[in-house]
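Practice problem 4.
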């Protein structure tokens, strides 16, 4: 485990309690709260009245709450129901000083970022990347005028961006110790959750749901669990459905590697599938798993996330398999309700 990964995990442990660490930093969190309040008073940036509806998917807690599977599930649902969605994203770790970068399909993770590349590849939807989401929206509308609904990945705190529907994603950490950065893990105070249209909470199997504020509208809280759906051999592209792959490899010894916000959740999902993992290796979020590490591992199979696969340089080791997951929602009907919201918005928007 790298020093950075160790420090990240230590910070998250501190943020789950109100100990000495958070007490010492509370004055700075007070200043953060004032800045957040001031920022929320700023006006939205105007966009054309005939713009597509905009759905913002975000979180108030830092570090891998589970936005990506929600964005993909939304895209697939909308595509299946006659919509043409597009995505805008910041492109974490990528420097974009000029125009937004726009593309579709297979995109270079170095130019677009790992999450936008994954979203573009798995959804097939066009995507625009820029730290200023308004510029990304404008570019998406310019280059893909057929897009009739826009999903903003991680745009909750981007105050300038107009939004019609807000979906907040959290995980088993809930709101941690309830404090904003740096004394706690929150980008905004816990009561921000009451203003969301939907609150989706991701947990692993058999884990209790955290107690947090809920949206003011009734029946807008959704539970999500991720399960393995397909295993893809990175060297050949061979794809095997999860039940068959798990049956073939259940008696073998494996290792799992992840450079994501909450790697332990990925590891636990695999162990819940009755896989035997001798090693669980975590790397910094948005980082790249070192190519040399694969040859050092003596496991029968090596499992990585789809997000890590888009920037993985180890393409020849036949033991490396990408775990493609699918979300299971309770209630599953929440996507239908979002579709109804969108249809109402589209019917009341001037053309």
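Answer key:
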């Amino acid at each position: 485990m790298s020093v950075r990964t160790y420090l990240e995990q230590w910070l998250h442990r501190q943020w789950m309690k109100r100990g000495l660490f958070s007490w010492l930093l509370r004055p700075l969190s007070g200043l953060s709260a004032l800045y957040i309040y001031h920022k929320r008073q700023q006006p939205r940036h105007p966009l054309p009245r005939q713009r597509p509806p905009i759905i913002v998917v975000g979180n108030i807690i830092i570090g891998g709450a589970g936005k990506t599977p929600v964005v993909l599930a939304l895209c697939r649902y909308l595509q299946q129901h006659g919509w043409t969605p597009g995505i805008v994203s910041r492109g974490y770790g990528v420097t974009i000083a000029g125009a937004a970068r726009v593309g579709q399909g297979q995109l270079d993770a170095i130019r677009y970022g790992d999450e936008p590349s994954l979203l573009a590849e798995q959804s097939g939807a066009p995507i625009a990347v820029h730290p200023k989401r308004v510029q990304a929206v404008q570019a998406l509308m310019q280059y893909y005028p057929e897009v009739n609904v826009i999903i903003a990945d991680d745009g909750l705190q981007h105050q300038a961006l107009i939004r019609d529907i807000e979906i907040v994603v959290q995980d088993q950490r809930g709101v941690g110790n309830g404090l904003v950065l740096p004394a706690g893990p929150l980008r905004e105070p816990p009561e921000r959750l009451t203003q969301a249209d939907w609150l989706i909470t991701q947990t692993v199997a058999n884990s209790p749901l955290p107690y947090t504020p809920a949206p003011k509208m009734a029946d807008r809280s959704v539970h999500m669990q991720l399960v393995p759906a397909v295993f893809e051999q990175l060297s050949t592209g061979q794809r095997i459905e999860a039940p068959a792959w798990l049956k073939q490899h259940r008696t073998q010894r494996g290792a799992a590697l992840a450079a994501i916000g909450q790697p332990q959740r990925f590891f636990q999902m695999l162990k819940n599938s009755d896989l035997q993992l001798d090693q669980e290796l975590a790397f910094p979020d948005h980082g790249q798993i070192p190519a040399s590490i694969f040859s050092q591992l003596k496991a029968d199979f090596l499992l990585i996330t789809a997000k890590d696969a888009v920037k993985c340089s180890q393409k020849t080791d036949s033991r490396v398999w990408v775990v493609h997951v699918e979300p299971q929602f309770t209630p599953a009907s929440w996507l239908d309700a979002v579709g109804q919201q969108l249809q109402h918005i589209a019917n009341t928007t001037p053309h």
